[in-house]
Design a protein that fits this description.
mainly alpha, 3-stranded antiparallel sheet, binds zinc ion
């Protein structure tokens, strides 16, 4: 029988094949090496996130004070450990260590793709070299911190909701624990993270390259079949540090504009 690790590797290969066929904006594909790298890192991020959630599902019941049940959930947190409880710091540290190398490689891949696309030398040549760039590592750390803080927040919310539902349904602790573990061990959540964050991280690296080599403006580059959120931005050019405004009012420096966004930017010098 295949081990879990073998199954995960097989899934990564499948992920690369499926996602290569998606509607990526052309500039992602312009350099086959960095495109392949982007897809491989996306697959690795999905595995790392799914594995983290799989293990978190075992720890999560320990983050609920079951002795407080079956009182109705009144306070914000209900029987779930407070936001400032040290367990959340530990969870954040675990998720950080699971993803930070992958996020750093994604930022570096964006920078290397920039060098391949625009041709102004920045001394990266390969992600191993780009990874030595202090600003790229710094950007990757910030990006990871944001991702982790958002994911941990979502975890707390999911635990609260799961416990509240168990109370509403009159479940006992065993049933409630089983429900909670199923809610947390959710491969769809891992996929959503892994289909959005790589574009964010890659675009962070691409922008770093563009700034370093003196680009002045940026133009939103998307596929005409893209979602309604991004399509009004296609072709819009603004100064490099200005923000694009999406139809929903959100302001952003670069894609991803929404979950699974595959838009890009063209930098002008
Ligand atoms: Zn988009």
């Amino acid at each position: 029988m295949a081990t879990r690790a073998e199954l995960l590797r097989a899934r990564e290969e499948l992920h690369i094949a499926i996602h290569a066929a998606e509607e990526w904006q052309e500039s992602y594909k312009a350099n086959p090496d960095t495109f392949r790298q982007l897809l491989a890192l996306e697959a690795r991020l999905e595995t790392a996130t799914a594995e983290y959630l799989h293990e978190l599902a075992i720890r999560a019941p320990g983050y609920v004070d079951w002795s407080k049940l079956p009182d109705p959930v009144k306070a914000d947190n209900g029987p779930v450990l407070n936001n400032d409880d040290p367990v959340w710091r530990d969870e954040a540290a675990l998720l950080t260590s699971a993803v930070i190398d992958i996020i750093t490689d994604l930022v570096a891949t964006g920078a290397v793709a920039g060098e391949a696309l625009y041709g102004y030398p920045a001394g990266y040549a390969a992600i191993e070299y780009a990874n030595l760039d202090e600003a790229i590592m710094d950007a990757a750390r910030k990006h990871t911190a944001q991702l982790v803080s958002h994911a941990t927040e979502t975890t707390r919310k999911l635990i609260r909701e799961s416990v509240a539902k168990s109370i509403a349904m009159g479940e006992d602790v065993n049933q409630a624990t089983e429900r909670l573990m199923n809610v947390i061990d959710n491969p769809i959540r891992a996929r959503l993270i892994s289909e959005t964050e790589p574009v964010n991280a890659y675009q962070t690296g691409l922008k770093h390259y563009a700034k370093q080599t003196g680009a002045k403006t940026k133009t939103w580059d998307g596929l005409s079949g893209a979602c309604q959120i991004c399509s009004p931005l296609i072709g819009r050019t603004i100064p490099i540090d200005d923000l694009f405004q999406l139809a929903n009012g959100r302001e952003l420096d670069r894609p991803a504009g929404h979950p699974r966004c595959r838009c890009s930017l063209i930098y002008d010098y």
